[in-house]
Structure formats: structure tokens, C-alpha cells
């Protein structure tokens, strides 16, 4: 069920009304049932599969968890990773073996549908088990609370990735007055809808043909798509997060922020503090730091960075393009550390100079992230210098890119300030009302899926 669909327009108001009509003691169950319906709308079979994985994790937590016993922790972590590997990476692993000239006889080809949210809920389950093992989360959790923690439908499909200490401890805490939550929540939903429907979904059909067949297009077309995807993925993913946070607030829950104007970052490290924040902090806390972080010398730190970003790339998808994307960011973070240790790194370079440099380095990575294959990614990058095909004629194309870049970052800074939030509310309400009308008529988005649903 997509947030930008007619089904969700009917689903969420119904859940909202039932949630606040029922007595407080039943509201948790209302949300659990709603979350089951939300996921089951896509696939009842995978809802059962998902539920079994969650029950397995709860059984381990309840009966077998013992602080200090790393072997037991390893078993449940491996079980979660095995589930992810089977559905998402088995075919890619088989392809790698073939490309390396290894025999794959006896390895059957598995043609399976990728369960929605499998990468997100796998990381969330692993984080919970590790936090309990480390003792950083010690609250006793009953099964209904655990089900709500994992299945909570606003963030279920594409995050933010929740931490137990941030969510579970709030279930029994009295909620902030609904009027305040409603005001902020509605503003975030409106912002998310506008980002997704008016910006991301309008950019997509303009750049998709260029990425699909880059040889057909000129240098100008390649550069247009180069910038276009950067804005599309930001508006698409951050738009989903805004809608998720807004829906959660209307139900009395706060979700962590996932984006803080990332394209205004003045360094690669700052970019990852602003982009997909819950994933980058997950990689830091559960992978980079356990590997040794930056405590074991320059060489080991560089290796840890590359391993962390490589696995972060693979988490996104089973394709060589995501491997390169992860390695690219690992390499950039490594080079940035080396640069900072030189005499040039000590220079006080203005941020307005650093921002476009970082932005373009990030955009190079987006080419691999978006391309369907390594070959197409390389052809695309080559076309940015020597493309001799046709120039796409988009009368509104560049205007959309410029306006989207300005608008979404202004909104990002303004939506947290109470005074600016009220202004945004007054401006965005009529705009979003029109967007909702377009969605209902199916004339704008066509229920175009969110990019991160595939992960």
C-alpha cells in the first residue's frame, strides 16, 4: 500500500479515527492490527513469513538471550542475515561465482519475490538483539509491544530504522497533546506529498529514458539526468520519511529524523550525518565501531570505512552497481581523512566552495546507484563528456530541478521552527489539497512507487 495511493487515503483516516475512538488500553492493538492489514495488503503469504521471523526473534529474546554469551547472539544474528540472504542475495552470489568462473552446478536458480521492507526490518531486529546483549536496552518487552515496534506501519516499508530505546520506552509514556502533534504531523505529511508527487514523480519520466539508453542522448541530456536523479531520490525518499513521521505524530508517536538538508553538506562525513541518518548511525554503531572505528591507526581506519560503506552499498541492492556505489563513498571518506591530515586540509576553505564539490562527488555515486548495470553507468558517465545523441526537449525540466533544489531545502530548514511551521501550514495546505485531488483522479502520480520500497 503506497502512501501516494487512493487505498492509503482511505486506510489512514480510518485507522486514525479508530485509534483515538478506542480506549487507551486498546490503542496498541488497533495499531498492530492496522499494521498487519497494511503489510498484508501487498502479500498475505509474506505477512505470515514476516510474522514468523518476528516471533523467532522474540522467542530468542524471551527464552534464550543471555548477556555476555556471544555465541547465542551470533545464532540469532545469522538467522536474520540468512533470511535476508536467501531472498535478496542468493541470486547475486550465484552470479558472482559464475563471473569468477566457479562451477554453480547444484546451485538452483531461485526466482523469488523480494519481501517488502526485508532490509529495514532485518537491521531493526539485529539492532534490538545487539542492544539487549550489550545491556544498552534493558527494559522488559512483552510480545504486543515487540510486534508494534517491528510492524509499526508508518515506518514499516522504508524506515526510519527504529531503535528500541527510542520507540519502546515511549509506548507507555503519556502522549504530547494531540493538537500540537496534529499540527506538526499534518505539515510533515503535506511536505512529503509535495516532495513525492509534485517533484520526484515529475522528474522520474524525464530522466528514466536517459538512464535506460544513455547512448541516445547528448551531453546536455546526460547532465540533466545527472542532477535530476539527485533531486528525485532526495524528494522521493525524504518525502516518504516526512509522510511516515507525520502519520506517526498523528498517532502520538515520534519517529527519528532521516534527512537534514544533505546537499548543503560541506564534507562527506557531514553528508552522511544528514543523509539517511538512521542507516548511517546503524552502520556506525553496529559495524564501523565493532570493526575498530578510528582507534587502530590510519590504515585500519581506512579499511573499516571501506568495509562499512561497501556493506552499506550491498544492503541497498544485489547488484554490482551498489557495490561500486558503496566503495565510492568509502573511498571518498578515506580520501577526505587523508586530505585533512595534509597542510592543504588545514586551510579554512569557505563552506560555499565545499558544498558544490561534495554535491558533485555524491552525484557521481548516484549514477551507479541509479543505473541498471555497470556498463550503463560507465556509458552514462562517458556521455557526460562526449555524448553526441539527441538533446531532450523538456520545457519545464530545468525549472523543476532548480525550484526543487531550492524549495525542499528551504522547507527542510523551516519545518521545525514553530513560527515558520505555521506559515508552511497555511501555504502548503491548499497546494497539498490539490495534490490529493490529483492522486484521487490518478492524473499525476499514477501511484508511482517510492524508490526505497525495493530495498
Automatic annotation (TrEMBL):
Supply the InterPro entries for this chain: Ac/AlaTfrase_AlgI/DltB, AlgI, MB_O-acyltransferase, MBOAT_fam
Gene Ontology terms, cellular component aspect? plasma membrane
- Where does this protein chiefly localize? membrane
GO MF annotations for this entry?
Answer: acyltransferase activity
Pfam families, from UniProt?
A: MBOAT (PF03062)
Q: Name one GO biological process term.
A: alginic acid biosynthetic process
Q: Which domain of life is it from?
A: Bacteria
Keyword field: Acyltransferase, Cell membrane, Membrane, Transferase, Transmembrane, Transmembrane helix
* Parts of the chain that traverse the membrane: 6-23, 30-61, 73-92, 113-130, 146-164, 176-194, 309-331, 394-411, 423-445
Task: Write out the annotated subcellular location.
Answer: Cell membrane
Coiled-coil-forming residues are none
Topology of this chain in the membrane:
Multi-pass membrane protein
Q: Per the similarity annotation, which family is this?
A: Belongs to the membrane-bound acyltransferase family.
Tell me the protein's name: Acyltransferase
Amino acid at each position: 500500500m503506497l502512501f501516494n495511493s487512493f487505498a492509503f487515503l482511505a486506510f489512514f483516516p480510518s485507522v486514525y479515527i479508530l485509534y483515538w475512538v478506542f480506549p487507551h488500553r486498546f490503542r496498541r492493538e488497533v495499531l498492530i492490527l492496522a499494521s498487519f492489514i497494511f503489510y498484508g495488503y501487498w502479500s498475505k503469504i509474506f505477512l505470515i513469513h514476516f510474522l514468523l521471523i518476528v516471533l523467532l526473534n522474540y522467542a530468542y529474546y524471551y527464552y534464550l538471550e543471555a548477556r555476555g554469551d556471544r555465541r547465542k547472539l551470533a545464532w540469532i544474528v545469522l538467522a536474520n542475515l540468512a533470511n535476508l540472504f536467501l531472498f535478496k542475495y542468493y541470486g547475486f552470489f550465484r552470479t558472482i561465482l559464475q563471473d569468477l568462473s566457479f562451477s554453480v552446478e547444484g546451485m538452483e536458480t531461485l526466482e523469488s519475490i523480494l519481501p517488502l521492507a526485508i532490509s529495514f526490518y532485518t537491521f531493526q531486529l539485529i539492532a534490538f538483539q545487539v542492544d539487549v546483549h550489550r545491556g544498552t536496552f534493558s527494559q522488559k518487552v512483552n510480545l504486543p509491544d515487540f510486534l508494534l515496534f517491528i510492524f509499526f506501519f508508518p515506518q514499516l516499508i522504508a524506515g526510519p530504522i527504529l531503535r528500541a530505546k527510542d520507540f519502546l520506552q515511549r509506548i507507555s509514556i503519556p502522549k504530547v497533546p494531540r493538537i500540537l502533534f496534529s499540527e506538526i504531523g499534518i505539515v510533515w505529511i503535506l511536505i512529503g506529498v509535495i516532495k513525492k508527487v509534485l517533484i520526484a514523480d515529475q522528474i522520474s519520466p524525464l530522466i528514466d529514458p536517459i538512464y535506460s539508453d544513455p547512448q541516445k542522448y547528448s551531453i546536455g541530456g546526460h547532465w540533466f539526468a545527472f542532477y535530476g536523479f539527485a533531486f528525485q531520490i532526495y524528494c522521493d525518499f525524504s518525502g516518504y520519511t516526512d509522510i511516515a513521521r507525520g502519520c506517526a505524530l498523528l498517532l502520538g508517536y515520534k519517529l527519528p529524523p532521516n534527512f537534514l538538508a544533505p546537499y548543503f553538506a560541506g564534507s562527506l562525513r557531514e553528508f552522511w550525518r544528514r543523509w539517511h541518518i538512521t542507516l548511517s548511525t546503524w552502520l556506525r554503531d553496529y559495524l564501523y565501531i565493532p570493526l575498530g572505528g578510528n582507534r587502530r591507526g590510519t590504515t585500519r581506519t581506512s579499511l573499516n570505512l571501506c568495509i562499512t560503506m561497501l556493506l552499506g552499498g550491498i544492503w541497498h541492492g544485489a547488484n554490482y552497481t551498489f557495490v561500486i556505489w558503496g566503495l565510492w563513498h568509502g573511498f571518498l571518506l578515506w580520501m577526505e581523512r587523508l586530505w585533512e591530515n595534509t597542510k592543504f586540509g588545514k586551510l579554512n576553505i569557505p563552506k560555499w566552495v565545499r558544498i558544490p564539490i561534495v554535491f558533485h562527488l555524491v552525484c557521481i555515486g548516484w549514477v551507479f546507484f541509479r543505473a541498471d548495470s555497470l556498463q550503463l553507468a560507465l556509458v552514462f558517465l562517458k556521455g557526460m563528456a562526449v555524448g553526441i545523441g539527441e538533446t531532450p526537449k523538456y520545457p519545464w525540466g530545468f525549472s523543476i530541478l532548480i525550484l526543487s533544489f531550492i524549495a525542499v531545502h528551504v522547507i527542510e530548514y523551516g519545518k521545525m521552527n514553530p513560527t515558520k511551521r505555521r506559515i508552511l501550514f497555511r501555504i502548503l495546505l491548499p497546494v497539498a489539497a490539490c495534490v490529493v485531488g490529483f492522486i484521487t483522479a490518478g492524473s499525476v502520480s499514477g501511484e508511482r512507487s517510492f524508490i526505497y520500497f525495493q530495498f
